[in-house]
Amino acid sequence: MSKQLTDFAANRGEQGAAPSGSPFEWNSSSIEVSAGGSISQRIDFWREIILRLFADVQISAVQRADFFGKVRQRKCDKLRMSEIHAAEQAVNRRYRQARSEYEDKYFAVLMLEGTQSVEQDGNIVALRPGEFAIYDATRPHHLHFGQSWREIVVSIPRTTLNQLVVGMETRTASPMNTSHGVGNVMRAFLEGMSSQIGHVTEDEMLRLSDTAITLIAMTLGNLQRNDIAQSRLKTLTLMRVKTFVLEHLRDPELNPHMVERAMGISSRYVNKLFEADCTSLMRYIWRMRLERCSEELANPHFSILRVSDVALRWGFNDMSHFSRAFKERFNVSPSEWRNKGVQG
């Protein structure tokens, strides 16, 4: 069969579901494009997976009968860790800035099997198994994957690494040493963490994510050391606040005063902590509630619930406010989002 490339592009979302009876499987932790269905169906669904989980890109995939793709992933408030196994393809990003906060990330890549080239800002690096590189998902880049490849991708907010590493813009698409020293420790840690992401608690995932980010930053080099102890304390306090918020997200009474009483710190200080993430406590609460609602609305298992039921489950008690906020966040109404998810 000749290798004719078919290009796809579409707007991204964050969650979705495969059509009923299709050869595709999609749940909160794994997505798979199996060998069933037509080639075009499989490539088209794979394109949707990449757009929804990673970035708004154009994908060129080789139209072969054995085309496949699998993603096993786990996310928390600090990062998303994904292990991807797929067939030959190329990925291009043309946009020069993030089109949503989902894209405002650095992608740290550890190659496990096969080969990949990463090109950005005039730099190009070829990755073989065991090798590591990072690129900025918000800026133009080109990726090319050889036949049957597997890799770990760690999606980290740009603000996080920019605060830890001097000159992050010079680190993209550059080779990083993983054969010895901290790079070798980072490599082993990411491989171990990826193998266990389905077997750890939310709190353990947050703690492991802290370690992963630190090791990646150290591997990238020039770790900023000014006021490290104070910065660490602020990071831990912010983590505690976010953990409390996520545990009480369904409570309609969740607000700055509730957090202040529970954590023993002023709401003013809490909001200063959130400034590092370019947000505030309440904006964080609304964002996380909207994300949970979007996940349930796109999940066929919750189709028995009305849109208003889903909103109420996650702490919204004003339906008009929920609808406005949801459309502002996802550019479609809650009902349209649900229909899109059900249709795949």
From TrEMBL:
Classification via InterPro entries = AraC-bd_2 (IPR035418), AraC_XylS_family_regulators (IPR050204), Homeodomain-like_sf (IPR009057), HTH_AraC (IPR018060), Tscrpt_reg_AraC-type_HTH (IPR020449)
Gene Ontology molecular functions = DNA-binding transcription factor activity; sequence-specific DNA binding
| Keyword Transcription regulation belongs to the record | yes
Domain named HTH araC/xylS-type: residues = 239-340
Q: Which Gene3D superfamilies match?
A: Homeodomain-like (1.10.10.60)
Chain coiled-coil ranges = none
Q: Which residues cross the membrane?
A: none
Q: Which SUPFAM superfamilies does the UniProt record give?
A: Homeodomain-like
For this UniProt record, give its keywords in alphabetical order, as a comma-separated list.
DNA-binding, Transcription, Transcription regulation
In this chain, the stretch annotated as Disordered covers: 1-23
In terms of PANTHER family, this protein maps to:
ARAC SUBFAMILY, HTH-TYPE TRANSCRIPTIONAL ACTIVATOR RHAS-RELATED
Query: What is the protein name stated in its UniProt record?
Result: AraC family transcriptional regulator
